[in-house]
Amino acid sequence: MIPEIEQQATSDIKRFQEGKLKDLLGYLNAHSAYYQEVFQQHNINISNINTLQDLTQLPVTTKDDLQLHNDDFLCVSKSKIVDYVTTSGTMGSPVTFALTDADLDRLAYNEAISFACAGVTKHDTVQLMTTMDRRFVAGLAYFLGVRKLGASIIRVGAGIPELQWDSILKFSPTYLIAVPSFLLKLIDYAEQNNIDYNASSVKGVICIGEALRNDDFSLNLLANKITSKWNIDLFSTYASTEMSTAFTECTEQHGGHHHPELIIVEILDDNNQPVNQNEYGELTITTLGVEAMPLLRFKTGDIVRKHTETCTCGRNTMRLSPVMGRKKQMVKYKGTTLYPPALYDLLNDFDAIENYIIEISHNSIGTDEILIKIGTLSKSDKILQQIKDHCRAKLRVLPAIEIHDIEVINKLKFPKNSRKPVLFIDKR
Predict the structure, then answer these.
(1) What is the pLDDT of residue 253?
(2) For residue 407, with 0-12 CB atoms within 10 Å meaning exposed, 13-18 middle and 19 or more buried, which class applies?
(3) Helix (H) or strand (E) run with residue 81 in it
(4) Which secondary-structure segment (H or E) carries 290?
């Protein structure tokens, strides 16, 4: 199930997207109170925007814009809205997004071609291990996508290893949709209850919410820890509520594929200009085919780079690298620039660490301080020294480290009403 446009020449893909961009600009000019104001304020004549390169003539849209002017982004009457979702609020106050019937159809199509990218077919059974409630769009999108693909789905929801294994053994799913670190809990439960997980029906996992790969696409420490025990394929998928689009690995597992019929991608520097080839920058997106709340040049805050060489899977589309980190979460510590994923990867290397939280704050002179709070059953000085040595070797700096009871960290990691585990607390 590879869409025809994704196999065409890059010049044809570009020309296709430029036609879609013209349609979008006309739609925003007619229906979006927010973008009408932007075009007027910046004296923008949309008839002058004809190519993807012309996008640089337009201002970017930020998360602050969405928070301050949320309702002004709505392009349809409330009678056309069939679903409301909110962002997770990881980087600020949650933002509301409305979806029409057409938007849900688009979401289903996006996930169907994304699952197909990872090798899922209509003959598979998929077990969903994420919530569909709490205004969370991801679980709904996965359900709609599996249904659109024609595969079977088991809606188990998040957590509860016992229930997950009961469903695996009863219904024999071939793929799971799960947060990677939860797979370690499934392995641990199986080992404690004499379940032969390598003899199960599961052959692959669509992984959400956590990184699987290093920059060279090799498995990171967390993924290696999983696959060293459980012989399954792991596929990365990256998406957000704002994008209504996913970038999912194909079976070659060399980056998340771009769906040009759904989204325009730019990788921008601090001056909102395209970075050079192979350079990192901030992922900036323009949604195509969204009816209720389309976005133009929206800066996601995620730092990535793009790969443009043709993939052996047959797609000619650009691929996204693993996310290096979020721009607002960049830490300057003792002359070293760090992003949270580097710290997560380091901590995931220790079996004795049950859970952790990373807190960033400013000290009395206004520079960044890092405090790593670790939950572990081992209170020995030896484990603390091993972590410190690992930090010096891998990061070249040594953050402050505290050891706490596991339940203390769990209360910080799973705050009330949060839909996702919190690993990074920014107090700056």
Answers:
(1) 94
(2) exposed
(3) strand 81-86
(4) none
Which residue stretches of 314-416 are H helix? 340-347, 381-395, 406-413
Q: What sections of 42-123 are H helices per DSSP? A: 63-68, 101-117
Output the pLDDT for position 428. Answer: 77
| Mode of pairing for the β-strands spanning 325-326 and 298-304 | antiparallel
DSSP at 61: B
Amino acid at 246: A
CA-to-CA dists, residue 103 to 109, 114, 239, 370, angstroms: 10, 16, 15, 41
Tell me the one-letter amino acid at 299.
Answer: K
> By the 8 A CB rule, do 360 and 373 touch?
no
What are the structure tokens assigned to 285, written together?
């997106």
Q: What is the mean pLDDT of each run of 10 residues along the chain (428 residues)?
A: 92 97 98 98 96 97 94 97 82 82 98 96 96 86 97 94 98 96 94 97 94 90 92 95 95 95 97 94 97 97 92 93 82 77 85 91 79 87 87 84 91 79 85
For tokens 């650009």, the residue is 318
Single-letter residue type at 417 = N
Q: Are strands 204-207 and 233-240 parallel, antiparallel or unpaired?
A: parallel
Q: Starting from the edge strand earliest in sequence, which strands make up the sheet with 353-362, in order? A: 400-404, 368-376, 353-362, 424-426
Rounding to the nearest 10 degrees, give the CA dihedral for residues 248, 253, 255, 259.
Answer: -40
Residue type, 364: S
Structure-block tokens of residue 139: 């679980």
Q: Residue 211 to residues 300, 344, 386, 405: CA-CA distances in angstroms?
A: 17, 9, 24, 26
Q: What count of Cα atoms within 13 Å lies in the side-chain half-sphere of residue 412?
A: 18
Q: For residue 281, how far is the Cα from the chain centroid?
A: 16
| Other CB atoms within 10 A of residue 261 CB | 21
Local structure of 45: helix, strand or coil = coil
Give the pLDDT of residue 89: 58
Token duo for residue 407: 């339940």
Burial class (CB in 10 A: 0-12, 13-18, 19+), 43: exposed
Radius of gyration of the chain (CA): 22
How far is the C-alpha of 112 from the C-alpha of 120, rounded, in Å? 9
